[in-house]
Amino acid sequence: MRRVFLQALLLLTICHSSLFAQPKYNFSQFGDETWSFIKQPTRWDGSDWLKLGLTGVGTFLVMQADQPIRDAVLRNHAYSNSAPVEFGRIYGELYSPVVLFSGFAIHSLLTNDAGTKKIAYEIGQASLYAGATTYLLKMAIGRARPYTDEGSRSFHPFSNLFFKQDYQSLPGGHTTVAFVLSTVLSRNARSDWLKGIAYLPAALTFIARVYQDQHWTSDDFAGGIIGYFIATWVVDQHEKEEDRVHMSSLFPFTISITID
């Protein structure tokens, strides 16, 4: 009888600790995951380098169509300030992650809902990572925006180290932000149709930035990929941990202890 009792007690203890091993979504976790994010390139395998290579090649190929696309867009600029185009621009503004983060965070505080806390955390985390990555690339590449009329092949690397927007075209920052938001929302949606709809605002941002002559098409292509992959990495970190905790709660180890 004592043997059964100790087995049950040990099982309960393990299950209890598993339940409280869920991701806490706090500053400590953010620090650990940020350091892991910074070190990621040193851990990449062949598939990761292949993705980077395909992104670079894809961006280069899209660049070949940048000027023809701009010429076609400029011939019909009647909808530059239309509601869908303006909505796309606003969705990719830097304040959009702040607004969504605040909304989900407030909801989680009021309702103690773990799901909205996770979404708020992932929006903030992925937006910071994507913003820093995009800013560094913009500085390093220094591509002229289309409205400067310098052409699609005008680059001024490291010439605009601060806030000179004219040479911060590649990658597209608004589109990066938009795809971060849509990817986080899509990954946390439960129905397939919501997962798909979540990307519609990001698509509008892509279109809006090209249509309003703020970016070349290849800028937004690269920005969208950056936003998608960074947000995917962030969500994966938490879902892998939650899956591990869930499995440990389903199949906890028990130890038999015999007391004579």
Task: Estimate the mean pLDDT confidence.
Answer: 85
Q: Regarding CATH, which class?
A: Mainly Alpha
Which parts are unreliable, with pLDDT below 50 for 5 consecutive residues or more?
1-21, 245-260
Termini gap: 11 Å
Please give the radius of gyration in angstroms: 23 Å
β-strand percent reads: under 5%
H/E element string?
HHHHHHHHHHH
Tell me the number of strands: 0
Total count of domains: 1
Using the alpha-carbon principal axes, give the shape: globular
Helix and strand content put the structural class at mainly alpha
Q: Considering DSSP H and I runs of 4 or more, what fraction of the residues is helical? A: 55-70%
Please tally the helical runs, counting DSSP H or I stretches of 4 or more residues.
11
- Architecture per CATH nomenclature, i.e. the level-2 architecture: Up-down Bundle
Largest sheet: none
What is the CATH T-level topology?
Vanadium-containing Chloroperoxidase, domain 1
Descriptors:
260 residues; mainly alpha; Vanadium-containing Chloroperoxidase, domain 1; disordered N terminus; disordered C terminus
Please provide a written account of the structure.
- This protein is mainly alpha-helical and 260 residues long.
- It has a single domain (2-39, 46-250), classed as Up-down Bundle (Vanadium-containing Chloroperoxidase, domain 1), CATH 1.20.144.
- 69% of the residues lie in helices and 0% in strands.
- The chain is built from eleven helices and no strands.
- The longest helix is centred in the last third of the chain and has 34 residues, at 217-250.
- The protein starts with a helix and ends in a 10-residue tail after the last helix.
